[in-house]
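Hi F.,

I've been meaning to write this up properly since the lab meeting, where we talked about keeping a consistent format for the predictions we share between groups. The idea is simple: the sequence comes first, exactly as it goes in, then the structure tokens exactly as they come out, then a line or two of notes. No screenshots and no reformatting. I'm using this chain as the first example so we have something concrete to point to.
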Amino acid sequence: MPKITIDGRECEFQPGQLILQVANANKVAVPQYCYHDGLSVVASCRICLAEVWQPNPRNNNKLEPLMGGKLLPTCQTQCAEGMVVYTDSPRAVANQKAVMEYLLINHPLDCPVCDQAGECFLQDYSYEYGRGQSRFEETKLKQPKKDLGPHIYLYADRCIMCTRCVRFTREVTGTAELLVSGRGNREEIDVFPGQALDNELSANVADLCPVGALLDKDFLFAQRVWFLKETPSIDGITASGDNISIHHNEGKVYRIKPRTNMAVNKWWITDEVRYGWKFIHREDRLGPATGGPQRKQFGVPVQTDLARAISDTVSGLRAAVTAGKRTAVIVSPMLSCEEAFVLAKAALAIDAKAFLAVGPVPVMGQDKTFPPNKPDGFKMYAEKCPNSRGVRRVLEALSAATPHNGYVASFEQITTQLASGEIGAALITGNYPSTWATDAFVKAVEGKFIALLDTLPSALSDRADIVIPGATWAEKAGCFQNARNMLQAFEAAIPVRDGCTPEGQTALEILAEATGAKAAGLFNAADVRQQMAATGPALRPFATDVSLPVADVTQEADMEVVEL
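Output, unedited:
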């Protein structure tokens, strides 16, 4: 494989790769503003310029300066065999200092109140490559703050004109709301008259902005970034399986940002995924609002403890079996594969003929691709649940191993069976970010024993005999099977809310109560995946094909540490 040397480090490259791409892949620090892997190359910021030497075949392959020795943009120059690049030479360093001085001429000194402080390239590069003092004595040019759309503010006086945001709206979303107006020091980013920055991926421009110019309204002045903890996770509200990072502090989620995965979501996430987590902290959420599990006493819901709720759930389901009725377990597609497995096992331990069903699968609109009509582009799915395929896969595997079941019912089918009177009791799970139980379903469960595991209040929670508050995906671990049929694992980011219990733990408690086990133990998603794989070939991929989250977090001290 051909090789190139960057700042004394030998690196392999693929033909056609750019110098900056090879440097980034090999963790060689090269300053950069305008370059992004997902956007076109404009080479406008000029801070990545470097000295480039290359063997000259007309002079016995002697190393000679490329292009007469002029500094070249590493983001635009392709690699060649034997090329030697210096980004730390005196000429390259002088250029970096000059670029930083130019960018900071009109930049306001408002780092203490800027939301980007702590993750700002301009701050970092000013420290690493800047002069340390300003020679500019004239009055700084002030630019206005602009409201670009429902999610984004533009602090124009902080902008360094890298044009990442403009290229994103033209090359990725295809909506082209942003433009560059003016020239020289009057150049600025703006929207076309009468057209707001309002598309399905609009907030990605805040992630793209290397400085504090484009800011997320939802996160504005909410938290200092150095207080936030970052947990790699998976989109828990749509079928896309987007790789995300949950940023949280002291048990509260503050924002969600994309994690790069070229096989799934590339570098982006939709605004729907970015802001769809708010139900996690709703004040009326079951658990904090109800004080924990509830049971009906003389038709009135009263607070109870988890042990009593579990005991009453098993008793109610068994009573239906004793009366000659069948039971059902409805597993929500918002739950993980591991939770679906334990819930179905618990239901079958009570009633070997229990119906296994998948909860409602919400669909809104149609699938969209960005850029439009590009097959390998970023895809936004109309299916608004993360694991309908995984839940069905698990239930079908268990149903095949249970001769009395035969098939896995859809939500519509189980609603019809409930209304027919064939089913006398049901264990139902929800966990949707909004109301999900239809009027027909609520009517169908009338007169039957209902144990509900859910997160938000609804007509069904008012009707249920037992209500056990559940946990959202951000509060537990597991794996989802996305629309591309990829199995991806996620870990808990924040503690479970007071009064709530993860559905997997509740299912283990029900299984222990049903089988007479002394203790249920703690629910562990990794251990459950091993149990799933041991049940047969259909679930064996859960031990071998699950993608685990990888967080590439490297922390370095600002000051050199020496041994005394």
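Notes:
The CA atoms of residues 399 and 405 lie 6 Å apart.
The radius of gyration is 28 Å.

If this format works for you, I'll send the rest the same way.

G.
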